[in-house]
Design a protein that fits this description.
27 strands; 9-stranded mixed β-sheet; alpha/beta
Length: 480
């Protein structure tokens, strides 16, 4: 059996780059040598407190050097880490602990203090982090026993149904980060401006960067001026953000540029060509979409046609195969829309609960993403919408993302969410929730007229609701 260990790979990277800065944050800088030492010390403390091989341990906190230290320290103990957002409510936190049957949680708050058998304050520099053990006496001896060398569990954001615990082994993580870097080509000379949530973006990002000797610039303020200030202060070379940040940066009215940046990637959800064009006009930097999925990693990236087709997710990364399948899982011809399927290295090993191995999920070796997409003759892939969010109006398919794109262009609309509702004649019809920028509400008929001029009649929302906010997942996606 292969016994690769992610923490060993990091410590080797630290030996190769001891004096390189691994982390830039509000506390200053931390070199690879210092980070390696802190991970060793934190792991020894966890072992002394009772963290052992096979345990499932949540690490809950905001973006910081300590989140990285404890996530690695858990794996150093041969335990399994479950990164958790600090934005989770107490009930959400407890639900994840219950579903995953975590043995312990390390956190920078007191949300779950009442579940403890023992509370320990863990060495963590200027912050106070606590290690809390689960009082449930019926926990299994080890977590994810159906996976060889499990390293990390990530819960999906639950946008398409019940959230799943995705289990990754040390070997799968190594394959995944090496696969992605075949295209990203990051190394010790790179510095990444980091603004996304570490709890939701850890494997093909934080672990990848540290494995390849990069510096991570932590920005806890996602305003455009703050991002630009840190880019220029630390000479960042790589900007990895979401469409929200692309939009904020594109609309920045200042004069700061980002001349040191040589790659800009947008991930987590679709970005529009309009947003990318405005960004390119402002900074003269193309935005490349990257298609990330928890079960697979980062198998599709758009570097080749990021200027002319920024709304495409790109081409398959070397080593990965992509196909568009019909309902019978047969491959469709180029240009035909169907379900996006992917296979390649670093795929997830299993789902956690109920315990289901990867081979039981795959269809003829393909992982079905749930996204509807098309692929051109030369392999360029475009996502058209979500299979499960599709609305069927009298046999006509409506993709919420398409209608939302139009609604978001209407003057005064800040954001929208489109869904289907039951209709006695058509089976389903389209409805929309709109967030408005001003106090004055726009006329509903004007909105419908705007849509009718740009959409097929069956796609026009028959019901419109004005709301103060839209439900979002912690990873920044609309809840469907």
């Amino acid at each position: 059996m292969n016994h690769i260990k992610i923490t060993d790979l990091f410590h080797r990277a630290a030996q190769r780059n001891p004096g390189n800065v691994a982390i830039f944050d509000q506390e200053g800088t931390m070199t690879y040598e210092e980070l390696s030492s802190e991970i060793h010390k934190a792991a020894e403390a966890l072992k002394n407190y009772g963290v052992r091989e096979g345990m499932g341990v949540g690490v809950q906190g905001g973006n910081s050097r300590y989140f990285i230290i404890f996530a690695y320290a858990v794996m150093e103990c041969n335990a399994v880490v479950l990164p958790m957002s600090s934005q989770l409510s107490e009930l959400e936190t407890l639900e994840i602990i219950k579903i995953a049957q975590l043995h312990a949680i390390i956190h920078e708050n007191n949300k779950v203090s009442f579940i403890n058998l023992v509370i320990h304050t863990v060495p963590s520099g200027s912050q106070i982090w606590k290690l809390n053990f689960n009082a449930d006496s019926n926990l299994p001896v080890s977590i994810a026993e159906h996976v060889h060398q499990p390293a990390l569990i990530r819960f999906t954001s639950g946008t398409t149904g019940v959230s799943k615990g995705v289990v990754l082994s040390h070997t799968s993580i190594k394959e995944r980060i090496e696969g992605a870097n075949a295209v990203l080509q990051l190394g010790p000379g790179d510095r990444i401006l980091w603004v996304l949530s570490m709890a939701y973006h850890f494997v093909v990002s934080i672990i990848l960067y540290l494995h390849h000797g990069c510096g991570i610039i932590i920005c806890n303020d996602f305003m455009a001026s703050s991002i630009l200030e840190l880019i220029n202060k630390h000479k960042a070379t790589f900007l990895y953000v979401s469409p929200v940040h692309i939009r904020l940066l594109a609309n920045d009215s200042g004069q700061q540029q980002m001349s040191s940046i040589n790659k800009v990637i947008s991930t987590s959800t679709a970005v529009t060509k309009q947003q990318c064009d405005v960004f390119y006009h402002r900074f003269q930097k193309p935005v490349s979409q990257a298609y990330g999925i928890i079960e697979i990693g980062l198998p599709v990236i758009n570097f080749e046609k990021s200027v002319e087709s920024p709304d495409a997710i790109g081409y398959a990364v070397p080593g990965y195969e992509v196909a568009i399948l019909d309902e019978n899982f047969s491959e469709l011809t180029p240009g035909t829309m169907g379900q996006l399927a992917i296979r390649g290295p670093g795929m997830f090993d299993a789902y956690l609960s109920p315990p289901v191995k990867r081979d039981q999920i795959l269809k003829h070796g393909w992982f079905l993403t749930g996204d509807l997409a098309s692929i051109s003759e030369d392999g360029l892939i475009k996502v058209e919408g979500r299979l499960k969010s599709m609305i069927n109006v009298a046999g006509n398919k409506v993709f919420p993302e398409e209608v939302e794109f139009i609604l978001n262009q209407f003057p005064g609309v800040a954001a929208s969410r489109v869904s289907g509702y039951q209709h006695s004649l058509t089976g389903e019809s389209v409805q929309a929730e709109l967030m408005i920028k001003s106090i004055a509400l726009p006329d509903m008929e004007e909105i419908r007229k705007f849509c009718r001029e740009r959409l097929s009649p069956y796609k026009v929302p028959q019901k419109i609701h004005f709301v103060n906010k839209l439900p979002m997942t912690d990873s920044g996606k609309l809840k469907r």
